[in-house]
Design goal:
The complex is a heterotetramer, with 2 copies of chain A and 2 copies of chain B. Chain A is of the alpha+beta class. Chain A is built from 9 helices and 4 strands; from the N terminus they run ααβαβαβαβαααα. The longest helix of chain A has 42 residues. Helix content of chain B is 32%, strand content 25%. By secondary structure, chain B is an alpha/beta fold. Chain B has 7 helices and 10 strands. In chain B, a hairpin with a 2-residue loop joins strand 9 and strand 10. Classes of the chains: A alpha+beta, B alpha/beta. Chains in contact: A-B, A-D, B-C, C-D. Chains A and D meet through helix 2, strand 4 and helix 6 of A and helix 2, strand 4 and helix 6 of D. The structure holds adenosine-5'-triphosphate (2 copies) and magnesium ion (2 copies).
Chain lengths: 302, 228, 228, 302
């Protein structure tokens, strides 16, 4: 009986806090709107940056994926050496793929490449001066240099060639863009968290008299805190919903219309948007609660 | 019930507001606290429910030693004391009804009990028809009566009232005083700071006169004094 | 000076607070407004300095027709009226001195004049030593006296006071009343809502009794009435 | 005399508003700090993005600058045609530079390019099958395609060749990165403006009773507004100072340490940082004032 009564009391009080939090959200009117819109606007920005960032990231991987090196073999390599050497390179760390290109295939490719200068290569079919080669791709394009060095020490390898200059320049640019992007992203997320909790703090600061009165009338700290927690959670969730909705519809429209452009493809909405949305929801509700509870604490010392 | 031993209170950057107060109020007593404006009445009262801490001295309320009282236990003390604040201290975002109900919610009363007690108490102070008004929609005297209702509603062991009739007309003041008298006769201790000479001189009770931070007078069935 | 013709005031979602008020107060009169809590005294007073607009009826204050008064001109009206609000309405972030000085700053007084007038007025209400205290550091009665000082400081043509002695002990109350009396004798119109029977019955002046939104009584040298 | 007295009053009141605004800044303590830090954090983010954005922009121009097209001439072009054709191309809109490469220089370049396959070109010196060509660069790399089309219609021009695929892919990536960057930058600036004014609004909302009391005591709207304007201005200026200081020192340190990396050079601090700083200062102070005045207005209607 007694313990049943205790549980009843707990449930009753919890329900009361829930009701109180929701009610307070409504009564604060303008302040609630200001808080929610601060959450909305910051998370919209975060979401926008996340989506753009992931897309640029994917696109840059795509560009980087085209960086390859040519490993030219010495004429002394026998046809039997070819697969063993290939396995050897394949087994190196950081190597993504190794493709064998025979001298005949190489000549064909050179022909295609020189296009206008076909005449130049006339009569070479019978006396092909090109070596056999592997086309090797690194897992991480930035490792190209290191891998090239390692491969060139192998037996039967004449030399390793790739377009050092252009590739390096491009890779550097992309790498910087990506690093900056990550730094900015983190800066943005922290700023968003700070701004949301700052806004919630100010609104609670404006209610400090209310909190003091509650304490003077005999409320415990938890009794005061809980409705604020509920309120902060709701502000976070409501504030995150708008950007999630906006980003989802906006992205869907973009994906549909961008399909016309051939050379750039956007990531598919499903894992991207659902993960971004979840992230925003978690950030919003967590900061909402955290901001509320931390700020309330300051005024409980009476 | 209420005991103070050599209690001093000095606010930051001020002269001492209370200087060596010694007082003992028994359970069931009815005490008026009188004195000129700025004498220290409100300070004296604020020490009892721990809105202010004494700079020096020992205070016992209802067997709580306030010096040793842990932060976490303060709400327990305050729930045994119903306070009518001089400036009302109503929650501005809650209706009259909710303000009164709040004192019951904090002690975890059931919805049913809250409804019946709040209704009863609002009737006692004559404001049953203003249940849904916000404090800003009430007249000064109505706000004061809501503050009184909130102090009474959970039947506390002590009622501490700081000028509870300052904004009331004589008729309403007397109704409130009769209410206090009834409650007192049922065993509740009542401490009331007041400037109302009529009330003090008519409804004769113990009078503690505070002047410039000292207890100037403490009489069993006293009068307001300070003739002019 | 102050004229009201068939003035009604109904707050949103409420019964009418004032119902057909007709009143004429001449320059230099001293008028008590009495009546039970919630009768409509504060509402009656708030109409004069335009805190509230009447729902119906015509009001003239100092030759301003409030109905036709442009938004921009309201400050001019208010500067001719010194108001003691029932809830004081002190600026919580300004010191006692600055609160009083504010009423002079708004009319563009020089620093010199502000200093001398504020000092003089703070002396009159007996709070010269509390100049640097914030309202939260003052006792209830001290706050009330600062509110009175602010209303007097720019020597307005009309003083409207809503229970200016509600938080004062009798001695201080009488000092304030004597001050009002002196100011009144120099030609200032005074309208004062009060519950203080002693004052009304001793310092005999015109009494307007409001009950449930109606003027129940309007006597030249009246008494408080409402015996119990 | 009278007009002198009037001017005196005006000056006295203006000084009073100034003093009052500064004093209020100090008295609001925690609220002031919250407002200033909201300005600081948002403008720090804006400044960071601006600086990074300008640098990436400059770097991308650098990369784009390497996109060229080869204009091959027909063998029927006489040596006299060469300069006139060059002027013709040079005078086309959007063309940045035209460089003539004779067939002999072309062979040399091909040699350098083929590196490993030198033998292939043996004996071609005497019988050079390569055509003369111009190397043309567009002002805007995105115009390359259009210019190529226009050049190929000229007399004596055989065809225009450039590395369509790789270049296009790279250019598309950079163009997208840049467009996204601009969109994000604008979104960020608007968000910052919204958040700053939102924060100021809430702090003023918390002071609405104060404003109401001032009005009831006879203050005119302007009398109330001015100190808030001063206060908002100071919040904006103080809030902008911190990010300006942080960004300046941070960037100076970065420039000094980055000098080691060869392939990436940062913009010089002087025009970049002074312009960014000025921008932040203007945005901060303007939004500070605007936010204050707009929010005060709401509470003046009493
Ligand atoms: N928070 C505070 N900080 C500094 N001084 C204070 C503070 N509160 C009160 N005081 C001062 O302490 C003295 C006593 O104040 P208290 O409020 O106890 O007076 P009181 O007897 O209740 O007066 P009243 O009848 O006017 O309400 C006064 O001089 C007052 O100015
Ligand atoms: N803003 C408001 N909204 C709704 N009703 C109000 C509002 N202000 C006052 N009232 C109601 O109008 C009536 C008259 O109020 P008023 O403040 O004029 O009374 P009063 O005579 O001054 O009383 P007291 O002596 O208690 O101060 C009261 O019933 C009150 O509840
Ligand atoms: Mg007091
Ligand atoms: Mg009133």
């Amino acid at each position: 009986m007694r313990s049943g009564g205790y549980t009843d009391t707990m449930i009753r009080i919890l329900l009361r806090h829930l009701r109180e939090g929701i009610r307070s959200l409504g009564r604060n009117g303008w302040m609630t709107i200001a808080s929610i819109s601060a959450v909305t606007v910051t998370l919209l920005l975060v979401g926008l940056f996340l989506i753009v960032g992931f897309n640029l990231q994917a696109a840059s991987l795509n560009v980087e994926g085209q960086v390859v090196m040519n490993v030219f073999l010495l004429p002394d390599a026998t046809p039997a050496d070819v697969p063993s050497l290939q396995t050897q390179i394949q087994n190196m760390p950081d190597v993504k793929s190794v493709v064998f290109v025979s001298k005949e295939e190489g000549l064909q490719q050179l022909r295609n490449k020189l296009q206008a200068d076909q005449d130049l290569l006339a009569g070479l079919d019978s006396n092909n001066p090109l070596p056999n080669k592997y086309i090797v791709q690194a897992k991480d394009p930035a490792q190209t240099d290191a891998i090239a060095g390692r491969i060139s020490t192998l037996a039967h390898v004449e030399k390793v060639v790739y377009q050092k200059d252009t590739v390096n320049r491009l890779l550097t640019w992309i790498a910087w863009a990506r690093n900056f992007g990550i730094v900015l992203m983190l800066a943005l997320i922290f700023t968003a968290m700070f701004l949301i909790s700052n806004t919630i703090r100010i609104t609670i600061f404006a209610r400090r008299r209310e909190i003091e009165i509650m304490k003077l009338v005999g409320a415990t700290n938890n009794f005061i805190r809980w409705p604020f927690l509920v309120e902060g959670f709701l502000i976070g969730v409501l504030g995150a919903s708008v950007p999630i909705a906006l980003l989802s519809t906006g992205y869907a429209i973009l994906v549909k219309n961008i399909a016309i452009l051939p050379s750039f493809s956007l990531l598919t909405p499903v894992p991207l948007l659902s993960e971004t949305g979840l992230f925003l929801l978690i950030v919003g509700s967590f900061i909402g609660m955290w901001g509320s509870v931390v700020s309330v604490r300051k005024f409980l010392r009476i | 019930m209420i005991e103070m031993y050599d209690v001093w209170k000095t606010y930051p950057n001020s002269e001492p507001a209370l200087q060596g107060i010694n007082v003992k109020i028994d359970k069931g007593e009815f005490v008026y606290v009188v004195g000129p404006s700025g004498a220290g009445k409100s300070t004296f009262i604020k020490l009892m429910y721990r809105e202010e801490k004494p700079s020096k001295g020992t205070i016992f309320i209802n067997n709580f030693n306030l010096e040793k009282l842990k932060e976490r236990k303060i709400p327990l003390l305050r729930r045994q004391i119903g306070v009518v604040f001089q400036d009302f201290k109503l929650l501005s975002r809650k209706t009259a009804w909710e303000n009164v109900a709040f004192a019951l919610e904090v002690i975890g009363a059931t919805g049913k009990r809250i409804r019946s007690r709040v209704k009863e108490t609002m009737d006692m102070v004559g404001l049953a028809d203003k249940a849904d008004a916000l404090p800003s929609q009430l007249s000064g005297g109505q706000q004061q009566r809501i503050a009184i209702a909130r102090a009474l509603v959970n039947s506390p062991a002590v009622i501490i009232a700081d000028e509870p009739t300052g904004n009331l007309d004589p008729e309403n003041s007397w109704e409130i005083m009769n209410l206090f008298n009834q409650i007192n006769q049922r065993g509740t201790t009542i401490v009331m700071a007041t400037h109302n000479r009529d009330i003090v001189n008519t409804m004769k009770k113990r009078v503690i006169a505070i002047e410039q931070g000292h207890i100037a007078r403490d009489e069993k069935r006293g009068v307001y004094g300070y003739d002019d």
